[in-house]
């Protein structure tokens, strides 16, 4: 099959729509279940590239949760501790496979953004991963294969209409890529940049130490940014993106947006949030929404009399701004990546508030000296790659 007819394009009024191989060759993807749409395939193919590169760079199974052609989360398959298993709502599933851990991390870091995601997996989807996916709100999944049990579980999702795509892992696209805008064809060489240790060797700060985990986190940040709509920054800790800011016109806005997501990830691990007692049968999405509001300055939206009873068994105390800040001050050893240079040191000041210790960015700003000075002041280690990673 060298083409797949789609129901419509980005929007229902955009017809006809299809994906196809311009050279007449076979498509590298097979639809095993469901009827994926135009945006589904955009998310699937971008996500597949991301997890394929993460696996190659780290040697670990990888997963990403895509929404609107940018990752909401990305991670490698490191084990979950009890706290992470609880805040990702997987503590009832027992011991999980490495691939399932990767998706639990990718989905769990920013569950609000991941709601209704398209999933990409670097390895054959196993039953553990399928069980996790089956109970989440998601549009579909792409992987190089599925075990029989996993495929059967996924086919039961969405009344049998869940999108399941298999991709040929040996497929290599042409080195030139093209797209049309307003009837005009754009052509460029594919971004085949290899994210490796050599790219991370130019340390420009007084502090030079980069632990092995921070090197892995730098790779995760850069590979995630490579498939994130520019401008973009990515906070990473312990093998997973914990905050992604994309598509803002100003880099500081990306840094703030991603930082607020990283902060929420850490706040969910606080005793105040872990101790919340939800009413029985409240869905995971409703719990996520309630937690998000509870941790914000709009907490009365869920704590007002006559409202809290719909969510909580016991009315929780206010999680004050001062208490939140005190907890966030415990956050440390976070890695921050940027797809282009930081033009001002205010990005570093904001990063510090979210526990950033390691930074990787292209460098090349006329204010690099001020950015380096800010990192030195905070005891951070920063790497210049010399390579920009814009993705549009």
Walk me through the structure.
With 392 residues, the protein is α/β, with parallel strands linked by helices. The chain contains 14 helices and 15 strands. The strands form four sheets. A six-stranded mixed beta sheet has the order 3-8-7-6-4-5.
Write the topology of this structure.
Elements: E1 3-6, E2 17-20, E3 29-33, H1 38-58, E4 62-67, E5 70-76, H2 82-87, H3 98-108, H4 111-114, E6 117-121, H5 127-134, E7 138-143, H6 148-155, E8 163-167, E9 176-181, E10 184-189, H7 212-226, E11 232-237, E12 240-246, H8 251-267, H9 271-274, H10 284-294, H11 300-303, H12 321-328, E13 334-338, H13 346-352, E14 356-361, H14 368-378, E15 381-384
Parallel strand pairs: 6-7, 7-8, 13-14, 14-15
Antiparallel strand pairs: 1-2, 3-8, 4-5, 4-6, 9-10, 11-12, 11-13
